[in-house]
Write a structure and sequence with these properties.
The complex is a heterodimer of chains A (62) and B (734).
Chain A lengths: L2 H25 L6 H7 L9 H12 L1
Chain B lengths: L1 H4 L3 H7 L8 E8 L8 H9 L4 E7 L4 E7 L5 H10 L4 E3 L5 H35 L6 H22 L1 H12 L6 H21 L6 H36 L2 E5 L5 E5 L8 E4 L9 E5 L2 E4 L1 H4 L5 E3 L4 E2 L4 E2 L4 E5 L7 H14 L7 H26 L4 H14 L3 H20 L2 E3 L2 H7 L4 E4 L1 H5 E7 L7 H11 L5 H12 L10 E4 L3 E6 L2 E6 L1 H4 L10 E5 L5 E10 L3 H10 L3 E5 L4 H11 L4 E2 L4 H13 L4 E4 L6 H6 L2 E5 L4 H6 L2 E3 L6 H36 L4 H20 L11
Parallel strand pairs in B: 15-22, 15-24, 22-23, 24-25, 25-26
Antiparallel strand pairs in B: 1-3, 1-4, 2-3, 5-6, 5-7, 7-13, 8-11, 8-13, 9-10, 9-12, 14-26, 16-21, 17-18, 18-19, 19-20, 20-21
Helix pairs in contact in B: 5-6, 5-9, 6-8, 6-9, 7-8, 8-9, 8-13, 9-14, 9-26, 12-13, 12-25, 13-25, 14-25, 14-26, 15-25, 17-18, 25-26
């Protein structure tokens, strides 16, 4: 029965970890666009704004 | 949202060397024709390629794009302009209030996450207690497990139960009962009683049932909320797209853009070619053709010149026009139709949803049963504890899952099925109203027909002729010219835009090259050598002087006849109400196989006809697309619009169908009937289950184990029954 002393906290901790991961995913907007998310997997690498491209080009030139 | 943006790679890149991001602002744009996943990239790229845009993130579910832009360098209008160039019609949405609905979604999802976590962990403990009881489990371990459950359950119930508690408190404040009253009462009593029993070391602990009940009910609440969010989001998008700005011509000939609602009679506005005219007015300068299909439902453009009246919402097809405003935005023809629509819609507000009707019977019944149990046990001489435990068991086993969970699940399954067939359901009760339909009324142009003239004599035209005519036609927005272009594209030809082309309103196109001149237009415009015929046709004469005629016709949707036949076979009465001329409507109706038709119907005449049908006890489904149909769409018992319909008709309709076929009409009626049947089946399941368990609970033989298992089982049964709708083969039957 002493094993319960650490098994129960571990079980609760793991469950809590799952809950935390869920809350994080919710907060970071992963449920905002469920239709779009499935399509984004098929898209090519995401391109940044022109500003970012310019910076990238400048860096590569150096 | 800010958190999402901080994960996108561009910010990581731009974080170090670029200037401070202090004047970056966020704009939310509704994008009208972002319909599929392939649109995400062009939409985002169109914005990202503007210098000064930091991030752009398209949301396909909401048909919106959120962009961060440098307010010092850009205005939202420039973002909209860039999207328009990429072929997407967009409008800025008012930031306030829009976040509310999706914040509500996220809030419920968070509460569901917490309830789900708590339910799983408490079940873990409970299962150990159940399997250990009577065996080798110590009494002390059992109590420990109960205390652990209490530790998880109390905060979870306090947090996740809030939506129900608030709603119940709101109902009680106005002395009414709703579904949330028995739910709240059951959950709170069960939790407090379990806490009390845990302190006493008894076995009557219901934490598991209480929290699982909350989790299941939150699933139902969330699904219902998501349907509403989608519907209200769609409505907000449409509203945003309707509000546009107008280019006002000042006395010093300068042009200033201002919101349509600030227009005053007497102001002069410039309507560019291809643009919607912003206000009712009189043409002062310019000659052009106007597409009035919005107002009249008639697809042929009207030629206007100085002195002619034009209406807000119609599209200027050819040359820029200067229009003197004669009516304010709120007294324009368009606004008048909006008012007619709002008035018509009030009649529909009285509809009470199936779940609410059931709740009216259910909530009092549950309370009476619980109270009877309590009084019965007290009267039989048991203590208040036993009496209360039995009453709580009654509240828990009568769990209203069939109402609070199963109906939303049916609706979501139905909406999912319809969505995959190109039907967007805008209101949940719209589906319920569709199940009661016995009469279907169609508009003609754009509903029964494809709404755009098609090249009728494709077979007579050679590839070269078509290609040459199409490169001229590319310069015009006239429906016939567009039909020529689309016929050429459909044949796999890729006509290039001809340069040096001039267009004369109401006549045709002219191109002068060293080799001679090419003309596309009416027989009179093309001139000698080309014999003019009757009706809808366009003549083309190339540089060598050879003539070719193109004939046009507005076609019935390809499956119109078979769909009408299916509807009649299923026992629906069918009618056509059109604003068009009698001969056109009559021949179209005959071709589609409809015997009941009326032509030249104005919007108020359409409403009057719907009123007659309603008074005769008919439940009418109106299918229409034009502005002139909007009031009728709002007045009918249920309504359906094609996605090519004008914004306002789409706002008024309960559902919108995409594609060139009419088949979605039968599909939605079949799904509506099937979902009503499934909802009723679920009620029957719930009643059957209550007939078994309520007497047991009243007799006090329902243990926490039985209560939890029975409750979960009933929720899962009704959900599984509802989900069948997604894959079930449906036939439209009378």
């Amino acid at each position: 029965m002493t094993s319960l002393a650490w098994l129960i906290p571990i079980a609760l901790f793991l469950g809590g970890l799952g809950l935390a991961a869920f809350l994080w995913s919710l907060r970071s907007g992963q449920y905002d666009d469920l239709d779009g998310a499935s399509w984004r997997a098929l898209m090519d690498e995401e391109r940044g704004p022109v500003a970012a491209k310019e910076i990238q080009a400048a860096r590569e030139a150096k | 949202m800010a958190e999402t943006l901080s994960f996108t790679p561009d910010l990581l890149l731009s974080a170090a060397p670029v200037k401070a991001r202090t004047n970056f602002q966020t704009a939310m744009l509704a994008v009208e024709n972002m319909h599929c996943g392939g649109c995400i990239e062009p939409v985002e790229q169109a914005l990202l390629s503007i210098p000064g845009v930091g991030t752009a993130r398209a949301n396909l579910s909401m048909r919106r794009v959120t962009a961060e832009y440098d307010a010092a360098r850009l205005t939202p209008d420039q973002l909209i302009g860039a999207l328009e160039q990429a072929g997407y019609r967009a409008a800025e949405l008012d930031g306030d209030g829009l976040g509310n609905a999706s914040a509500l979604d996220a809030d419920l999802l968070r509460r569901l996450g917490v309830a789900g976590f708590a339910a799983m962990n408490i079940m873990l403990l409970s299962v150990s207690v159940w399997s250990g009881s009577g065996g080798d489990m110590d009494r002390s371990v059992q109590t420990l497990f109960h205390w652990l459950s209490a530790l998880i359950a109390l905060p979870a119930v306090a947090y996740s139960g809030q939506p129900f508690f608030r709603s119940a408190a709101g109902a009680l404040k106005v002395r009414r009962l709703n579904m949330d009253v028995p739910i709240s009462l059951g959950v709170i009593l069960a939790t407090l009683m379990s806490l009390f029993q845990t302190a006493r070391g008894s076995e009557q602990v219901y934490f598991d049932a209480a929290v699982t009940l909350l989790a299941f009910l939150l699933v139902g609440r969330l699904l219902d909320q998501q349907m509403r969010t989608r519907a209200s989001g769609a409505a907000a998008n449409l509203l945003g797209l309707r509000l546009t700005s107008a280019a006002v011509l000042r006395d010093d000939q300068s042009i200033e853009r201002m919101p349509v609602r600030h227009l005053e009679p007497g102001m002069r506005i410039v309507a560019a070619a291809g643009e919607r005219i912003a206000a009712d007015g009189t043409v002062r300068r310019g000659v052009s053709e106007i597409d009035e299909s919005l107002i009249t439902g008639e697809s042929m453009p009207r030629i206007v010149k100085a002195g002619a009246a034009v209406f807000a919402g119609t599209i200027n097809l050819q040359q820029p026009l200067v229009v003197e405003v004669t009516a304010r935005d709120d007294s324009s023809l368009l606004s008048g139709i909006v008012r007619l629509m709002a008035a018509a819609e009030q009649g529909r507000g009285r509809y009470v949803r199936l779940a609410d009707r059931a709740a009216r019977l259910y909530a009092p019944a549950v309370h009476i049963l619980g109270l009877t149990t309590f009084i019965g046990w007290m009267a039989a001489g048991h203590g208040w504890e036993d009496a209360l435990t039995a009453a709580i068991a009654v509240l828990i086993v009568t769990c209203p899952c069939a109402l609070a969970l199963a109906v939303p699940v049916v609706q979501v399954a139905a909406a999912g099925r319809l969505f995959s067939k190109g039907l967007i359901l805008k209101s949940a009760d719209g589906l319920e109203r569709m199940a009661e339909i016995d009469t279907v009324v169609f508009d003609k142009t754009g509903t029964l027909t494809e709404g755009e003239p098609q090249l009728a004599n494709v077979a007579d035209v050679s590839d070269e002729e078509l290609s040459a005519a199409a490169s001229l036609a590319l310069n015009s927005r006239h429906p016939y010219a567009r039909a020529v272009v689309s016929a050429a594209r459909r044949r796999g030809l890729n006509p290039s835009v001809a340069t040096d082309v001039s267009e004369s309103a109401g006549a045709g196109l002219l191109r002068i090259t060293p080799a001679g001149e090419a003309r596309l237009g009416s027989a009179a415009w093309v001139g000698t050598g080309c014999q003019g015929g009757e009706g809808a046709e366009l003549w083309f004469k190339d540089e060598k002087g050879t003539c070719k005629v193109f004939r046009f016709a507005d076609r019935l949707r390809t499956d119109a006849h078979s769909t009408i036949a299916k509807l009649s076979a299923a026992g629906y009465a069918i009618e056509v109400l059109s604003g068009d001329r009698a001969e056109a409507v009559g021949s179209m109706a005959r071709e589609a196989g409809i015997s009941q038709w009326s032509a030249a119907q104005k919007p108020d005449a359409k409403i009057a006809r719907l009123g007659e049908l309603r008074d005769a006890g008919r439940k009418v489904l109106m299918v229409g697309d034009g502005l002139n149909d909007a009031p009728a769409l709002a007045a009918a018992h249920a309504s359906l619009s094609p996605s090519t319909a004008v914004d306002i008709s789409q706002t008024a309709a309960d559902a919108i169908f995409q594609g060139t076929k009419l088949e979605p009409v039968t599909e939605i009626l079949a799904v509506a009937k099937a979902s009503r049947r499934l909802s009723l089946e679920n009620f029957a399941l719930a009643i059957a289950y209550n007939i078994v368990f309520v007497p047991l609970a009243m007799a006090g033989v329902v243990t926490p184990l039985i209560a939890a298992v029975a409750m979960s089982a009933s929720s899962i049964t009704v959900t599984a029954n509802a989900v069948r709708l997604r894959t079930k083969a449906l036939e439209l039957a009378s």
